[in-house]
Amino acid sequence: MQIVSAPAPSLIAYCKELFAYRQVLRFFIWRDIAVRYKQTFLGFAWVVIKPLLTMLLFSFVFGFIARFPSENVSYPLFVLAGMLPWQYFANCSMDSCVALLNNSSLITKAYFPRLILPISTITAQSLDLAVNTFLFVLLVPLLGNWPPLENLLFIPFIAVWTYLLCLGMGIWLAAVTTRYRDIKFLVTFLVQFGMFLSPIGYGTFLIPGKWVYIYMLNPLVGLIDAYRWVFLGISHPYLIWTVSYSIAATLLLCLWGILSFKKTENQLIDLL
Amino acid sequence: MKPLIEVENLSKKFLISHLTKRTNTLKEAFSEKVKSWVGLSANKKSIEEFWALKEISFSVFPGDRIGIIGHNGAGKSTLLKIISRILPPSAGSIRLQGRVASLLEVGTGFHPDLSGKENIYLNGTILGMTEREINQRFDEIVSFAGVEKFLDTPVKKYSSGMFARLGFSIAAHLDPDIFIVDEVLSVGDIQFQEKCLKKLDKLSAEGRTILFVSHNIGAVLSLCNKGLYLKEGRIAAQGPIDECVNTYMQQVRNPQMEWKGECGDSSIIMRRFAVESKDRREYVRQGESLTICFEFDVLQHSPGLILGFDIRNQHNHTLASARSTDHPTLYQKLENCGKHSLQFTLDTTHLRYGEYDLSAFCVIHNDRIIALDPVTIHLSVYPSAEDLRFLHPHRCEGIFLGNQWELSHG
Fold first, then answer.
1. Is the pLDDT of residue B391 over 60?
2. How far apart are CA B116 and CA B311, in angstroms?
3. Residues of B246-284 as b/e, b for ≥16 C-beta within 10 angstroms?
4. Which of A1, A6, A27 lies nearest to residue B125, judging by beta carbons?
5. 3-state secondary structure string, A9-74?
6. Rounded CA separation B383/B197 (Å)
7. What distance in Å separates the CA atoms of residue A197 and residue A190, rounded to the nearest whole number?
């Protein structure tokens, strides 16, 4: 028995329904992956090519020309460790802006929990992250570093953390873009700019003293620091602060994202 | 019997804002916010509420085939969308028992870049089939749609006909308890529409519950056994389909099944010409009987008076006529002075589905025709219940000769 009524469902009922529709979610994830590299010559190889090219560029500009320090780790690895979560975050942000807009014909003609759309978008992107992380781990010994093995045990933890951070962000972006289409352009801009605001070409240890507390307001700072610690063993005095703040921000972002999505959901048809 | 769908006091409100600019861009939103803080905003809120549906209550029982009719904008599609859960209601509730499949469009969620095979799985899932059900019915779906050769071709390369066929084929192989169909029949060619309606007819014969929105009164009358007539967001009539369609037609077309007035000359005055049907309905189903009534005063003895009527199609061709002289003895009584009332029983078995005009005429002495041309009644003939003949492509108004066809082989 299903009951459709005016008052919005509780958060628990909302999640239960999401679970009931898990098959739809599975097919949407599969669709998002299948569609992405259709009709491209190199196909799936783009998953690897994109971050590799960025790494080469960064290594050249910051490592070779500007000679940024990288804590006794080969500079390309240093950049790549930052690129892993960053690339994922950037792709997720841009994709989730259009997650609802691109599926408007579906939303106006068929029912399923709308939350499935941003979730599938973010989850489909995770494939790229997983492939890249795997290749990265192989690359570390090749470039003459030895990953700190006990730190590698934290991989599942940072994987979930990265996923949740992007999920919270993506759900919120998907909801808010239906109301203000401007966000789409703003995100494209922030993604370009954010690459320099986040510790990708340089390390957080370069930020002077107390400024770290302001710098780390960008939740990606803690996340990227964690990646460098897990895969390369790079630490700095403020690591515990940046990481704890980022985890807290991730959880808040998820909650906020879902709540604002839920609020928008009822007016979705009018907004699309 | 427990109802499958129970709709209680359902209302749906839309907000229409006047003068007030809705803030569509971030810049507008910011400047409006700032202005309202400082109290400079000239943009006074004036939002009008528009009730697309107002306190609708009805129940759908297993096996009901409900035709939802009404003008454009009466709330039909809104109602279906709320039952399909696409739109949330503003007030009231719906209790649904069993699996609902709503077909508001064919090929919902088809992705142009994915192959036919991939889209069958995607679309089937969106419409509510489990993966196992799709596996089981996969071959049937493909052969019903006739796309065996193109299973691995992206659907963006399909012709629109193939696209629609595949879309409908998937929907047709759903196994829902409640099937919700909206104007799907308005797309596709005649063969496709026929296929859809036949499938719906088969479903209804199996005792499935159907909610059907269409502007094709013929389709509604043949497929549905109950009706729901919506007018300006409220239920104007509900009950047996004939009653509903009748109420609808009375209000929409304002058909005149009766002519009253005075028309004639010094010898005869026509007072009333009417078509009377069963239940005083405004239309007739093929096969039912109609009574054609004439009321007139003969003022002076008029030998050679002939009354009658012509049945004409929409191209103004006379298809048939009846006149009082057809009766062997009647004409002698007609010519006497006094008030007369004359009836003719019309068997509509001989009229095909379509629109006709019935015009009365009056002749005296073969050449003196009293102009009764304005005395015309419009008659709609619909097929009898569960008769799918109406959807054949070459339908035309005319005389029905019967179905004495025989086919022999070899």
1. no
2. 51
3. bbbbbebeeeebebeeebbeebbbbbbbbbebeeebbbb
4. A27
5. CCHHHHHHHHHHCHHHHHHHHHHHHHHHCCCCCCHHHHHHHHHHHHHHHHHHHHHHHCCCCCCCCC
6. 14
7. 10
**pLDDT tier, B22 (very low <50, low <70, confident <90, very high otherwise):** low
Rg (CA), chain A: 20
3-class secondary structure, B229: strand
- CATH number for the domain whose boundaries are B60-251: 3.40.50.300
Residue with tokens 């929990």: A113
Cross-chain Cβ contact A109/B90 below 8 Å? no
pLDDT class for A169, splitting at 50, 70, 90? very high
Going by C-alpha positions, the residue among B170, B175, B176 that lies closest to residue B184 is: B170
- Residue ranges of domains in chain B: 60-251, 258-391
- The pLDDT tens digits for B256-272 are 778 887 777 778 888 88
CATH 3.90.550.10 fits B258-391, yes or no: no
Contact B92 A6 (CB under 8 A): yes
Tell me how far apart the alpha carbons of residues B237 and B248 are, in angstroms, rounded to a whole number.
8
Interface test with A, best of B17, B85, B110 (most A CBs within 10 A): B85
Residue with tokens 């799936």: A44
Rounded CA gap, A73 and B172, in Å?
Answer: 62
Longest dimension (CA), chain A: 67
The DSSP letter of residue A141 is: H
